[in-house]
Each structure stands twice: as C-alpha cells, then as structure tokens.
Amino acid sequence: xxxxxxxxxxxxxxxxxxxxxxxxxxxxxxxxxxxxxxxxxxxxxxxxxxxxxxxxxxxxxxxxxxxxxxxxxxxxxxxxxxxxxxxxxxxxxxxxxxxxxxxxxxxxxxxxxxxxxxxxxxxxxxxxxxxxxxxxxxxxxxxxxxxxxxxxxxxxxxxxxxxxxxxxxxxxxxxxxxxxxxxxxxxxxxxxxxxxxxxxxxxxxxxxxxxxxxxxxxxxxxxxxxxxxxxxxxxxxxxxxxxxxxxxxxxxxxxxxxxxxxxxxxxxxxxxxxxxxxxxxxxxxxxxxxxxxxxxxxxxxxxxxxxxxxxxxxxxxxxxxxxxxxxxxxxxxxxxxxxxxxxxxxxxxxxxxxxxxxxxxxxxxxxxxxxxxxxxxxxxxxxxxxxxxxxxxxxxxxxxxxxxxxxx
Length: 408
Ligand SMILES: [Zn+2]
Ligand SMILES: [Zn+2]
Known about the structure:
Layout: H1 6-10, H2 18-32, H3 42-55, H4 58-73, H5 90-98, E1 117-123, H6 125-130, E2 132-143, E3 159-160, E4 169-176, E5 179-186, E6 195-196, E7 209-220, E8 229-232, E9 248-254, E10 260-263, E11 266-274, H7 275-280, E12 282-288, E13 291-297, E14 306-309, E15 315-316, E16 319-323, E17 326-333, H8 340-352, H9 373-389, H10 391-398
Parallel strand pairs: 1-9, 11-17
Antiparallel strand pairs: 2-7, 3-6, 4-5, 8-9, 10-11, 12-13, 14-17, 15-16
Helix pairs in contact: 2-3
The chain binds zinc ion (2 copies).
C-alpha cells in the first residue's frame, strides 16, 4: 500500500472538523465500496478506511499530524502491514453509516457473501423493443466439490491456528513517543481465518472454490433500453463458509437501428417524400417495428411535418400492454437531376404561380440589414449568382422546404 497523505485520500483540509472527516468518508466510501458495482475499488477503499480510522481518532490524528505515517507505525510492522482484518470496529462504523454491516468486507471467519458479478449483454434494436430470451454464460465461483469448500485435502480437515489460537487476530503493542499504542493485526499465520489447512485440496489448490461456467436462460422484458440493469439473484459467486451467493447484474446495451431512432418509448423515423407527394398529397408505405404500414399524406404538406402513428412505438417496460408512438418526420426531397420534360413542367409551374426565377441585379432583393454601399453591392452580386445557379433552391422555397438537405 502506498503512503498517500490521509488528508488527500479523504479530500479534506488539514484543519477539517470531525464532522467534515465523517462526511468526506461517507461520501467517498459509498462510491468506492466494493459492493458498488459501478465504481467500487477495493484497494482504494482500504486506503480510505485506513485514512478514516486514523483521522477520526483524535489521538491517532494528532500522532499523524506530528510525525506523519511514521508516528503511527512505531516499531513493529505498523499500518503498512495492516489489512482488512485489523479493522475490528470498521464493520460497526459501516453499519452506522450504511445500515447493517452485513455486506461489509470486514467480516471474517464467518459466513461471507459471494461477490456480485457484472455481465454486459448486447441486444439488437428489435430485441430490446419486443423482449428476448437470451442464454448467457456466467463464470462464477462455486464451492469445490472435492473438499466441500474448506480447502483441505480429503481426510485432513483444517486445524486451529496455533499463532492466534483461532481468533484470527493478534494484538501488537508498539512504543511511541506518547506511550504504548496497541494495534490489532490480522494473524499472519492464518490470514485471519483462525484455522490453517495442513494439506491443501489439490482440486482447488486450497482455495475452497473454483470458477465454473454456468448457463442461464434470461428473459429480457420488452421495452428495455441501454443502461438498464437486470438482476439475477444468487447467480454470482457462491459465498464462502456457506454464506449467501452474490447476484449477477446484466447491463443492457442496445444497438442502433438503421432507420428507427428510439427516444424512450417513442420511435422516430425520417421519411423522405417527393415534391409531388407533398404538393398533391397521397399515400406512403413506411416501416414500423411491426412491419410496413400505410400512412396518408395530405395535400400541401410542408417539409418537417410530423405524422403521429399511435401505439406503434416501444412497449412500456413496466406495463407491456401500453405502447409508445411512432413519429414520422417528413422530409421533402428536392430532385437533384431533372429531365428536360420535368424541367419544363416545373418552369411552367413557376410561370403559373407568377414567379420570376431570375431577377435583375438591382432588384432590391438583398438582406434588409445592409448599410455600407460596398457590402450591399457584394451581396447583390452574390444574390444574382445564387438566383441564376439554383432554380432548385427557388423551387424548394416554393414548397416551403427549408431543410430538405437534412433528409437521410
Ligand atoms: Zn477443494
Ligand atoms: Zn492465526
């Protein structure tokens, strides 16, 4: 363990009050606790717990303030060699902070809950919409069947540790400038177990557990989305010494779809429509998650108009009989290439609507805010160039298509 400054570990000032020490520990502990699936970090947590143990104790804190880490280590081993087992009172601190020290990693020599495991599951877009049955393989720890989990070779059961007489801890008194200072250390002979194995089980190398792959059938509910977590109770690592098994958390990742864009229970779809369809109206076939459906487009439809298809969206996760909607975003497609005949028809259309497609340079078509003569002349030039080059732009304007270019 590196010797980071304890104040730095807790992220507090040197003159922090006991209240601030407590608060800082509580905030960071919740974040780093090994039971926290997302941000748990056992070694950082141990470091934090050590910093808290020292700074929350006035006597230890003043020793630390005066002599740094050396002030605490005394002659024998010191805090550097201290591990989880020595925090006799930390599980109490824990239950005080988090309610019940049950899942604290500081319990030892008794039943211990197995670790939670995380499994990342990738789903196709439609699998997430309608739900799916998935087979997943979890690699978790199980009790070794040869030694029944105690790690001892058959016929050579574990024996009580002679160093600590089965307590799992030893007391060590160190002399410091301020007198004697007693530390409780994990027994180095048995690593806090209180028992020792004379002859290790060859199947699990004395660990008592082995990692095995287990297949689990998982029912993914309809309407699930990226980031959701499904809990499979007791599918995690089996507990040590008959402790309860941990859980498996399946984290869902949903792939994007080529045409559908999901927003909660709503599905958005960009649907290009032609000029003629927008102007005259008609019927269109559009994709939905249930297959193709017919929609009506009314005459004079503007680009960007949305059409709501009720209950064609994603089922509600907590009420599968309800479904969200699908929203069609109509995007006017401006033709890029015109045949001579099409061109003629469109020119005729412009003529009928009394539109002049090319304007003289000084027609006063420049933006209203122009003030200087020079820039207004430039703008006029630009405007002319635009007018002559892009009949299509004008036609698009005619149909109110300002964002036709956004169509996929
Ligand atoms: Zn074994
Ligand atoms: Zn021992």
